[in-house]
């Protein structure tokens, strides 16, 4: 990378990349200098929205150590601006680009650096590459647009070289970093320094990446709607760093599809945990059937329980409901005071009626309240799986339940009053 | 939050003039159950909760005037979102989960998970209440 840097240093001022800089390419790349988004540089390239503007355009991408790691994730991808003029198709350039670009969704830089590793792979890809600049442009745009984000689980195959990436890396690497021309030059220089990327691939990569980058912002789901796996290799450069696995197609369509498939499988796994008895089932079709059955059974259960509750409901006194709602309405904040008050109310109501009853059956009576409380707590905690249930709320509920239970028992034989009578003495076991 | 809402609704139903019709109360309770599900804090941001509330309000508006009219919305559901890689049962799932028609398969799964969680919590709650009230 020293070579790159040194080369790049010379013309870091955002000038267009001189052909002189890239003598091997034979023809001016014609790349529009990459412009940092809103940076001071006068480069005309707009930074892709959302692309991080790296402050250090030079150092990072060319770190060979970085590039060689498969887990590298560059926050940008080498993308040429859409207005990038066509690259002259130089076989040498393409070769170099192909070799240099190691396709990871993260960055074309990886491709740049690891070209040596995957020459053959690249060449194979190169052959399938769509060399037409225009087509690659379009392809890249679409492909990149469709690349799904998030899955950073893919290990980048450093062999993977996308033409676009190479070109981008070379030409647009600066874009990745900061969209500055210097970047680009440096990348190019770096590529040149490595002297391996083919011009064509770079060219392609550059064009495609830029175009695809543009579309990255667009929905990632476009991908699936599009052609699918083209023969043309498209740079996987994307904001969302998805790496193509070794031996897998680097087409951004396929990449996005892979991401999408992974998302779907991840959600299926989560559903598998939710639905009881699905851990042994494998396969999406059977799982889906199970899920459907479960949802249907849950809905039927809701209907059934509502029927039963409708039958039970008339039994409740209006008092109970009123008190309950009053307690609820008074809020969780005032739970303790309210509860205490209501309990006193209960006692005042009930105690005079049957004073002095001993609670022989108390232990038996008290039992139902505990499981009831616990049962209520369970849905409470189930309702907040991701955070602790509001302790105040649960407290309120428990108090409410106590009230409800006591009220219910009050309407029943005197044994209930014993429970109520003894309740204050026990204190509230919340 | 869910339980709170449900109990409030139950109280409201019990307080209201109890209709002798068992089915009417059933309907009201079921309505309350789904409403409380949709209002739970965890699901208020979900697509299915909005769709569910919308559906409930629609039904409520129909109720008072016409007892027997079954309003059918002729909704031409073109499988815009159906994709080749979707399994065949995806359509069934879409019908089950409220608001599932307009979603992509990926989001549909996520919504289903949330919906299942809420449904389960609701069922548990109702069961508990039933046990409490009938014991």
From TrEMBL, chain A:
Polar residues bias spans: 126-154, 163-178, 411-420
Assigned GO CC terms: nucleus
InterPro entries assigned: bHLH_dom, bHLH_ZIP_TF, HLH_DNA-bd_sf
Compartments in which it is found: Nucleus
Ranges of compositional bias, category Basic and acidic residues: 201-217, 227-236
Any coiled-coil regions, as ranges: none
Name of the molecule in the record: BHLH transcription factor
Domain BHLH span(s) in chain numbering: 248-298
Species name: Rhynchospora pubera
Family designation: Belongs to the bHLH protein family.
Principal location: nucleus
TrEMBL record, chain B:
Xref: Pfam families: IBH1_N
InterPro entries listed in its UniProt record: bHLH_AtIBH1-like, IBH1-like, IBH1_N
Domain IBH1-like N-terminal: from-to ranges: 5-59
Keywords associated with the record: Nucleus, Transcription, Transcription regulation
Top-level division of the source organism's lineage: Eukaryota
Compartments, record wording: Nucleus
GO CC annotations, alphabetized: nucleus
One Gene Ontology term from the biological process aspect of the record: regulation of DNA-templated transcription
Protein name, as recorded: Transcription factor IBH1
């Amino acid at each position: 990378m020293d070579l790159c840097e040194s080369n790049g240093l010379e013309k870091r001022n955002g000038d267009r990349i001189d052909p002189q800089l890239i003598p091997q390419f034979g023809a001016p790349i014609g790349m529009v200098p990459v412009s940092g988004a809103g940076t001071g540089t006068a480069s005309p390239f707009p930074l892709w929205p959302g692309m991080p503007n790296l402050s250090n355009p030079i150092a990072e991408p060319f770190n060979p150590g970085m590039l060689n790691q498969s887990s590298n994730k560059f926050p940008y991808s080498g993308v040429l601006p859409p207005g990038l003029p066509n690259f002259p198709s130089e076989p040498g350039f393409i070769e170099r680009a192909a070799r240099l670009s190691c396709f990871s969704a993260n960055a074309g830089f990886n491709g740049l650096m690891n070209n040596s590793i995957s020459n053959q792979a690249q060449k194979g890809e190169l052959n399938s590459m769509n060399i037409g600049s225009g087509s690659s442009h379009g392809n890249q745009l679409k492909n990149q647009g469709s690349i799904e984000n998030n899955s950073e689980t893919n290990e980048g195959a450093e062999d993977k070289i996308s033409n676009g990436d190479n070109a981008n890396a070379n030409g647009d690497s600066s874009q990745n970093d900061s969209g500055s021309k210097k970047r680009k030059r440096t990348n190019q220089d770096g590529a040149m320094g490595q002297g391996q990327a083919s011009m064509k691939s770079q060219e392609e990569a550059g064009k495609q990446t830029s175009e695809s980058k543009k579309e990255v912002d667009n929905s990632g789901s476009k991908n699936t709607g599009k052609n699918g796996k083209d023969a043309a290799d498209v740079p996987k450069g994307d904001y969302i760093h998805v790496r193509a696995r070794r031996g897998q197609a680097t087409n951004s369509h396929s990449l996005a599809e892979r991401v999408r498939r992974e998302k779907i499988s991840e959600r299926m796994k989560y559903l598998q945990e939710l639905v009881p008895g699905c851990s042994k089932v494998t396969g999406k079709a059977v799982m889906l059937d199970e899920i459907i059955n479960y949802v249907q059974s849950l809905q039927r259960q809701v209907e059934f329980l509502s029927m039963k509750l409708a039958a039970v409901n008339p039994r409740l006194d209006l008092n109970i409901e009123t008190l309950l709602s009053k307690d609820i309405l008074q809020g969780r904040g005032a739970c303790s005071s309210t509860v205490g008050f209501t309990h006193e109310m209960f006692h005042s109501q009930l105690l005079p009626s049957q004073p002095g009853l001993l609670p022989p059956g108390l232990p038996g009576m008290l039992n139902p309240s505990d499981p009831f409380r616990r049962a209520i707590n369970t849905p409470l905690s189930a309702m907040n799986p991701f955070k602790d249930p509001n302790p105040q709320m649960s407290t309120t509920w428990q108090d409410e339940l106590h009230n409800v239970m006591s009220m219910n028992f009050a309407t029943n034989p005197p044994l209930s009053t014993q429970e109520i009578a003894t309740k204050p003495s026990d204190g509230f076991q919340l | 939050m869910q339980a709170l809402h449900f109990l409030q609704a139950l109280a409201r139903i019990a307080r209201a003039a109890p209709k002798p019709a068992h089915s009417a109360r059933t309907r009201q309770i079921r309505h309350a159950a789904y409403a409380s599900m949709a209002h739970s804090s965890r699901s208020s941001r979900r697509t299915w909760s909005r769709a569910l509330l919308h559906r409930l309000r629609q039904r409520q508006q129909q109720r008072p005037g016409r007892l027997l009219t079954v309003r059918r919305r002729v909704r031409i559901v073109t499988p815009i979102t159906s994709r080749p890689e979707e399994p065949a049962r995806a359509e069934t799932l879409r019908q089950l989960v409220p608001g599932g028609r307009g979603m992509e398969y990926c989001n549909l799964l996520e919504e289903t998970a949330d919906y299942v969680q809420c449904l389960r919590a609701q069922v548990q709650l109702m069961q508990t209440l039933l046990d409490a009230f009938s014991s």
